[in-house]
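Quarterly update, task 2.4: zinc ion-bound model.
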Amino acid sequence: MTTQPPANPPLSILMYHQIGRYPRPDAHRALFCHIDRFKDQLRYLKWMGFDVINLSEARARLFEGKPMTRRSVVITVDDGYDDFREHAWPALQAEGLSATVYLVSSLLGQQASWLTDWAHQPGLMDAAAVRQLHREGCDFGSHAVSHPRLSRLNAGQQRSEIFDSKKALEDLLGAEVPDFCYPYGDYSLRARDLVEEAGYRTATTCIRGAAHFSDNPFELTRKAISYGDNLLGFAWKLHAKQARKGQAALPDQA
Ligand SMILES: [Zn+2]
């Protein structure tokens, strides 16, 4: 009779966007988190003994056989808003934690111009801020050159969004940029393969679920933390919402 090895503890990749002192938004609630709740969430992760790791470590544990003895979490923050420097990064540092921030390489120091229907397009960190936070231990990944819907682009445009953003950010940081995040979670199999060809080591989607159940390092699942998530809701997402759910690769349209 064979004995099954114990299942690995799950690994969750959390997804945030704007983190700050925001009133309750009327719409786009999954794109905001109040800083006080964010601080509570960080303290909860530490109190519960989660391993807060980066994506290279997550890849090693998920796909390369590195032992995973504790429940693990990666904190990802999309778009690189100014508020990260002001609010989230000091809160992470206070707890001795880090995160991966995905940057839109052509829009550093500008506005989130892809949010075309927003009355106020929030500001994005500039190059000096990114370099400073990188020196302080923050991880940065690519969120493409211009935050496009990749499946709507032709192969040449996809290639330049994926390759050129990596090069630009590596030049800025003087370090490898191994992580990519599909804007809007929109990707095709061709875009995914270009991400791998460009030399990235991971890519995150907006498919829900524990990353533990991702089947490909270039299609990592995540859990969006929403403005409405109190600590109980946060804990529920961490501990219970593991199943995979949501739109995967789209057909290329050009
Ligand atoms: Zn984005």
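Highlight for this quarter: The pocket of zinc ion is lined by residues 78-79, 143, 147, 183 (CB under 6 Å).
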